[in-house]
Design goal:
Serine Threonine Protein Phosphatase 5, Tetratricopeptide repeat, 2 domains, six-stranded mixed beta sheet
Length: about 325
């Protein structure tokens, strides 16, 4: 009997010590027919790689038109609270380098049977020397809590992943050489925001992509270059379109591919090619119907597409295919 109690006590102690890794990476809560799902992936990364927080809101059997609102921001004042604890340190709230303030709520409407997805990257930290929140190899405890408010039901959905473990591996000699090319606060901040802030940063990203075209951070470098071309004065639309097409051809399933498609729609609109812009927009609707960029509450989407396309207009035949499959004549 005593031996049984000792074994039981030992089992409980081991279970407690390992509880961080036993909690599921994905959690779903429901209220009034609306489901909020939050997950964190991957569990294991190389030092220098990001972790992704995915937030999904789905109107499964709620109101015909369900409204919800949230502040999709990491710092205090936002509704996304990610807490990280490094070995031997106190836990802290992840901020992605942003200051705490009163953030503006995002309001969205989703029809019955439709959803909304937001992927948020956990990478940059302005308090570390190299700009990485997971700046050293080892084990990190992470907990994510997301709040979404349903105004018509006067209900708050709260999804909490509980404590989980992120394993950060030390890169090999070859991997370290490539990742060290992008070490530094300014570079990592630009990868987080998706915009190369200076010509020096853009040059560093281009050098990385030339040296390591299949490197783990090549997709993020490509997006940052695309962002820098779009925000240049004047905008470098041709270079931006080329970079965006190259991204989609190489990484069509990346977490930020929908963002790139929407950026290409904006580039085409800037060039005055509204047929091409709508083709990209329709393609985004088809490939990622939960993308927040196609929501009618998005002022850019409404101004460029919903607000200016006649209700009776049907898609042209080529708008059912990938816009980059157009013939040269249609592209011109």
């Amino acid at each position: 009997m005593i031996r049984l109690r000792l074994l039981l006590s030992l089992f409980v102690a081991v279970l407690f010590c390992c509880s961080g890794s036993l909690v599921a990476k994905e959690v779903t809560v429901e209220n009034s027919g609306v489901y909020l799902t939050v997950n964190v992936t991957p569990e294991t990364i190389l030092r220098g790689e990001p972790v992704w927080l995915s937030i999904k809101v789905f109107n499964q059997n709620g109101l015909k038109m369900q409204d919800f609102s949230s502040r999709f921001n990491f710092p205090e004042g936002g509704d996304v609270n990610v807490t990280i604890r490094k070995k031997g340190e106190l836990p802290f709230r992840y901020t992605a380098g942003e200051e705490a303030r009163l953030f503006i709520e995002e309001r969205h409407s989703i029809m019955l049977g439709q959803g909304f997805t937001r992927d948020m990257m956990i990478m940059y930290d302005d308090k570390t020397e190299n700009g990485l929140v997971f700046d050293k190899a080892g084990y990190y405890n992470l907990r994510a809590e997301v709040k979404v408010f349903l105004p018509k039901n006067d209900q708050m959905l709260v999804a909490d992943t509980g404590l989980m473990t992120i394993r950060v591996l030390a890169p090999s000699i070859g991997e370290k050489k490539s990742l060290d090319m992008l070490s530094g606060k300014e570079l990592v901040r630009s990868l987080q925001t998706g915009n190369a802030e200076t010509s020096e940063v853009a040059h560093a990203f281009q050098n990385y992509m030339d040296a390591y075209p299949n490197g783990p951070l090549a997709p993020l470098c490509s997006i940052a270059l695309l962002g820098s071309y779009m925000t240049a004065t004047p905008p470098e639309n041709d270079r931006a379109m080329h970079e965006g097409l190259n991204f989609l051809l190489r990484w069509p399933n990346h977490k930020r591919s929908s963002e790139v498609i929407f950026m290409l729609a904006g580039i085409a609109a800037q060039k005055g090619d509204m047929d091409m812009a709508r083709a990209w927009f329709f393609y985004l609707q088809d490939t990622d119907p939960t993308c927040p960029y196609i929501n009618k509450d998005n002022t850019v989407a409404y101004g460029l597409f919903y607000g200016c396309v006649p209700k009776g207009q049907t898609r042209r035949w080529y708008q059912y295919t990938k816009p980059w499959d157009f013939s040269a004549a249609i592209r011109q």
